[in-house]
Each structure stands twice: as C-alpha cells, then as structure tokens.
Amino acid sequence: MPKFYVLFICLCIALNPVKAQKPVTATGYPVIINKDTLFAFYTGQGLFTPAERAQVVTKRINGLISRLDFVADSLKLTHDSTLSVITYKAEVVFAINEQDSKFSELSRKALADNYYALLKQRLKTATESYNLKELAIQVGEAILVFALLILLIWLVNRAFGWLSKRIIGSWNQRVEALAQKGAPANYVNRLLPFVNTLLRAVKFAVIILLVYLALPVLFYIFPWTKPIATQLLGYVINPLKSIALAFLRYIPNLLTVLVIYMVTRYIVKLIGFIATEIKNGAFTIKNFYPDWAMPTYNIIRVILYAFMFVVIFPYLPGSDSKIFQGVTVFLGILFSFGSSSAISNMVSGLVLTYMRPFKLGDVVKVGDIMGTVIEKNILVTRLRTIKNEDITIPNATILGGHTINYSSTAKTAGLILNTTITIGYDAPWQQIQQLLINAAEATEGILPEPKPFVLQTALNDFNVSYQVNAYTNNPGIMAITYSALNRNIQDKFNEAGVEIMSPHFTSLRDGNGIQIPDNYKPDGYKTPGFGFNKDK
Description:
It is a single chain. The chain is of the alpha+beta class. It has 5 domains: 29-140, no CATH class; 143-252, no CATH class; 256-343, no CATH class; 357-405, SH3 type barrels, CATH 2.30.30; 415-507, Alpha-Beta Plaits (2-Layer Sandwich), CATH 3.30.70. The chain is built from 12 helices and 13 strands. It has helices spanning 3-15, 50-65, 98-101, 108-180, 185-221, 226-280, 293-312, 322-338, 340-355, 395-400, 429-441, 478-495; strands at residues 29-33, 36-41, 75-79, 83-88, 91-97, 363-366, 369-376, 380-384, 390-394, 403-405, 415-424, 453-459, 463-472. The strands form 4 sheets. Strands 9-8-7-6-10 form a 5-stranded antiparallel beta sheet. A hairpin with a 3-residue loop joins β12 (453-459) and β13 (463-472). α4 (108-180) runs antiparallel to α5, α5 packs antiparallel against α6 (226-280) and α6 (226-280) runs antiparallel to α7. It is elongated, with a radius of gyration of 53 Å. The relative contact order is 0.04.
C-alpha cells in the first residue's frame, strides 16, 4: 500500500475521533441521596466492585448531610494525571478515574466537573432541610436522656435513703438486744457512722456510674460527637472485653489449677483424719507419741500446700511476667532479711515439739520464770505465773537454755518438795528429824506414801542443816504447799519447845529468854538472869 494512502487514513481518524458509547449491556449502581438518584457507577475502583463502590460513596455523602457543621462550599475538586478527587476538609468523598469516562461521552475532567457541581447543589438543598429537622429530633432525644438520668438519680437517692433507714432501725434493735444481754453496746454504736459513710460512698459511686454511662448516649445522639461517645464507651467496654477474653483463655489453666488444688486438699484431709485418730488413741504407731500427731499434721499440711503452690505457679495469670517475677523476688528478699528471728523461733518450735520437754498444763521453770504452760505455738510459748501474769517466751530462748518440768513425773513417781532449816548442835538430831516429818505429814497436799524423809545436808560452824523432803502430785499448788509446810514446821517446833534460829545460831543463853511464842512457853516460865561465878 502506498505510504501516501496510509497517511491519509491516519489524518482522517485524527480529525474525526470516534465517540465513546455507553455499552448497552453495562449495569449502573446508583448513588441515592434522600430517595433520589444522584448518579451511577458502572465500574469498580481499587478493590471495590461497582456495587460496593456505590454503597461506600452513598454512606459517605449521607454522613456529610448528617453533620450540622457541613458547608457545601467546602467541597473541593482536584485533578491529577489519572484521577479526579472530590474531598471535604481533607476527607475523600469519591474519585473519578479514566474507566468512568468510558461510560460517558465526556472526558474524565469534564465528568468530574459535572459530578462536583451536581453534588454541591444537591447537598446544599439536602442539608438545609435535614439539619433543622434532625437537630430538633436530636435535641429532643438529648432532653429525654437527661430527664431519664435525673429520674434514675432520684430513684437511687430514694433507694439508698430507704436502705439506710432499714439498716439503722435493724441496727438499733440489735444494739438494744445486745445491751440487755450485757454486751458492750457502745462499741457497736461506734460502728454505725462507718456503715453510714460506706452507704454514702456506694451511693455516690452508683450515681457517678449512671452519669458516666449517660454521657456516651448523649454524645451518640449528635453525629459530630459520636467519636467522643465511642471513646467513652471504649474506656469501659475495652477493659471488660479484655478481662472476659483473658478469662476465657485462662479456663484450661484454671481447670488444671482446680484439679491440683482438689487433689492436694483431699490428701491433706486424709492425713488430718489419720492424725486425729492417732491423737485420740484409736490406733498407735511405734515410737510415735500421740501429742506429736497434730504438730506433724500441721507440718505436712504446710509442705503439701507449698508444693501445690510451686506446681500451680506456672499456671497463674501473669506468672511469666517480668514484673510479677520481680515482685516475687523482692518479697522473698524482704522475707529473708526481716524474718531471721522468726525463722529461728519456728525451727526451735519444731525441735521443742519433738523433744517434748513439756506440754499444755505442765508447771515449768524457764530460766527465772516459773508458771503453767497455757499456750504452745510454732513461734512462742506462754506461761501463766502464780500471780496470774502471762509471760511470752520465744521458742529460741527456751531451746537455748534449761527448762525444769515439775509436772512430768508428778502423777507417777511424785514431785519432791524440800525446804531446809538450821538447828543448833545442842538439839538432838533424832528429835529434829521427827518434828520435820510430823510437820510434812500434817501438810495438805503432801502424799502419805511415799513417806517424807529428812537429810542432814551440812554441818556448819554454828548449826546443822536439816532438809525435809516430801512428795506431792499437784505441782500447780506448789507455792501454797510450801507455805503450809513452813507453817507446820514452825508449829511443830514451837510445840516441842525447840528454837529455830536460822540461818545463824549461837549457844549463849545467860540472861536471854527462849525464842518461841509465849503461848508455847511452859507455865510459870521466867526469863533467866545473868549468872556470875564469883570464885572465878
């Protein structure tokens, strides 16, 4: 073909372009505003199909209409090499591409200009009628929500007022009943202001919660404040949602923890049953004393629960957290540094339990302290003296010193009470011993068998020491028994006319009367005078 003919054909095509015709088979998806079709999309854009694109643009335009601060003149149209974009305050409303112009007889820029002018005109008309109507409805809804909030606050006040009256009335009746029984009603009355304060705090908390929940409802009524409503609801819903999801995810671990706990609990119950039976004497274990049963049970229980905690620790929420682990280490260090003496007392308490130096009710002497054991625990031992003084002694102190138990053999072999007096060499020792034995036998609390006995413990410079020993099975009244024994010794010696001049005695008698009470002196007794030997 000649070159001239080809150039002629190209020139004709250039001077007479073929107009784009809308395909007959193409389906348009309309953008509808207030039940009126604004325009239609025949092609998709990006990931959107034509139908999805029309839905998104319709939603955006309706959102602009519902905004009370919308101004149609703020719509902007910009063109670039591939797209024409209509925006409102930096928000994209929709865009026109080259594919859209193929379904029109206009170019992309001309089509965008037509859509822009049509959108601007229609939105002006729609917002003028929509804004006033919607604003009136929204204000009415806000007033209704506010009135409902006031009603709820009033009901809360009435409910808590009624509850306060009921509590105060019931409280007063109970206080009167307790006062009639002799209970300290003043202490109960001092708790009433605390209860009232607690009720007021709960009431204010409920009111604040109602106000907080009402605010998102009010903000959600007005379109331009909907983001604030969503944010306020998020402050409540998001934590609750996180807690619920965390709980659901934790259910498998929770079941594991429950199984471990239940197994440990029933093992502890079984050991407790066995310990109770051993304590009550239902069955025995060789070389295992019944009073060891409960302390041993308590030790095993602590060990089992500690082992249980170690096993379930990895299943606890947050156990793998660095913060949780750091707090655990910190508490462990505090416990180690702050409880050295407590741990020492605990170890001593365990040792004392299995040493069995005394038991509850025994009369003991720890150092210089003597009393009845009224309490034994893992840390301390408490004694009650004869003066009703309760003395607390750390177990480490008891373990580090010596302890005298007056009750351990009192019921079987008997406890020997003893007291010592000194008598001059001029008194026959046979008479002195018999007088001491008679005094012991006359004392209440002294056992007749085994019989009392006397020991001569020392031959001093001016006198002889006589120690009377007598048996008793009641060390709890030891002080009273000693007092009665000393009284009887005085009576028996006075009756026999024997002087007790302890701890020192001399034999000088010239001019001195006998040192016994007057009612024990012989009839007609006179104090002798001083004797002189004139021959010397």
